[in-house]
Specification:
Layout (H helix, E strand, L loop, with lengths): L1 H4 L7 H27 L9 E10 L5 E12 L3 E3 L1 H11 L2 H22 L7 E5 L10 H12 L6 E6 H6 L2 H12 L3 E7 L6 H6 L4 E4 L1 H6 L5 H15 L3 E4 L5 H9 L4 E2 L10 H10 L8
Parallel strand pairs: 2-4, 4-5, 5-6, 6-7, 7-8, 8-9
Antiparallel strand pairs: 1-2, 1-9, 2-3
Helix pairs in contact: 2-3, 4-5
The protein binds ligand C2E and magnesium ion (MG) (3 copies).
The site of one magnesium ion (MG) has 4 residues, from loops.
Organism: Laspinema olomoucense D3b
Protein name: EAL domain-containing protein
């Protein structure tokens, strides 16, 4: 990161590497401390991690159908750290398993609470990201079952988002696990679809429900151009396989219009709402579930 700091002045390479390694080690240590706090419950206000909720909207009705749970880390000195910074590190160090477990438990608890108290939340889903690194660990199914029980939500209101690489790397055992997850009524989505290398043959074999079209394709759409055709083809592929399509990273009214024309089922992005703290998400649920004018 030395390059970003100066106006062209260069830092000796070795020192640069050294500083980077120290910063990384520091972050890893801080992350370990944060994870320890989730294991020994602390009061909510001093929780190191927090789940933000970004609405997912039906393009047919304009209603919120659910939320994606996105983790945030309140670092003691650096403030809010985004997952883009610490998730890759946590994946390398093996800390991701503990983080994902905490996020799933918290997101399910939150949805259970909303569903029990607010009729408007009765049919909402929550989508949780699951890193491929620990996918298929022993006890995964039992833990998910326990999470559903303690939160009081039905499996069909939980969605797990996995990436294409998970399926490519893990073969037989991953498929067996996906089948067991599916048997609990839980929905499976392929996240960032189009950025990996899944073969169509494999896709067809998977017990999945949803393709999430990566933001990179959606944000490049300018009218009926090539990116738009890629999105259109992906939506058609999803429908051919009996799956729903969700467009990620929708930021403009023009994109919403195009996606509706292309028969995309759901959308998510800053145009509708950024990821919100739970109180703000609840306000959205209770106030105005229609996030765009269907025109
Ligand atoms: P993702 O699962 O693809 O999540 C969507 C990301 O796009 C989120 O970034 C979200 O804030 C951002 N986003 C949504 N709409 C827009 C938009 O209109 N424009 C732009 N520019 N961005 C938008 P976030 O929260 O920083 O998360 C980044 C990634 O970190 C996620 O990508 C996911 O891969 C990972 N992640 C987040 N939470 C977790 C978690 O609990 N566990 C694991 N394993 N990974 C997580
Ligand atoms: Mg996701
Ligand atoms: Mg995604
Ligand atoms: Mg993405």
């Amino acid at each position: 990161y030395a390059k970003q700091q100066g106006q062209g002045q260069s830092v000796p390479f070795a020192r640069d590497m050294h500083d980077g390694a120290i910063a990384r080690l520091q972050l890893e240590t801080d992350l370990q401390r944060a994870i320890a706090h989730t294991i020994h419950p602390t009061p909510p206000e001093s929780q190191p991690f927090q789940v933000y909720y970004q609405p997912i909207v039906s393009l047919a009705t304009g209603n919120i159908v659910g939320f994606e749970a996105l983790v945030r880390w309140h670092h003691p000195t650096r403030g809010l750290v985004s997952p883009g910074e610490f998730i890759p590190l946590a994946e390398e160090t093996g800390q991701i398993g503990a983080i994902d477990r905490w996020v799933m438990t918290e997101a399910c608890r939150q949805l259970g609470w909303w569903q029990q108290r607010y009729p408007a939340a009765a049919d909402l889903t929550v989508s949780v990201n699951v890193s491929g690194v620990n996918f298929g660990q022993v006890g995964t199914i039992e833990r998910i079952e326990q999470t559903l029980r303690s939160s009081g939500i039905c499996g069909r209101y939980l969605k797990l988002e996995i990436t294409e690489s998970v399926i490519l790397k893990n073969t037989g055992s991953a498929l067996a696990l996906l089948d067991r997850i599916k048997a609990l009524g839980i929905n499976l989505s392929i996240d960032d679809f189009g950025t990996g290398y899944s073969s169509l043959a494999r896709l067809h074999e998977l017990p999945i429900n949803t393709l999430k079209i990566d933001r990179s394709f959606v944000s490049r759409m300018r009218g009926l151009d090539e990116s738009c055709e890629i999105v259109q083809t992906t939506i058609a592929l999803a429908h051919t396989l009996g799956l729903d399509a969700i467009a990620e990273g929708v930021e403009t009214a023009e994109q919403v219009e195009l996606l509706r024309t292309l028969d995309c089922d759901y959308a998510q992005g800053y145009f509708f709402s950024k990821p919100l703290e739970s109180e703000a998400a609840l306000n959205l649920i209770l106030a105005e579930r229609q996030l765009f004018n269907k025109g």
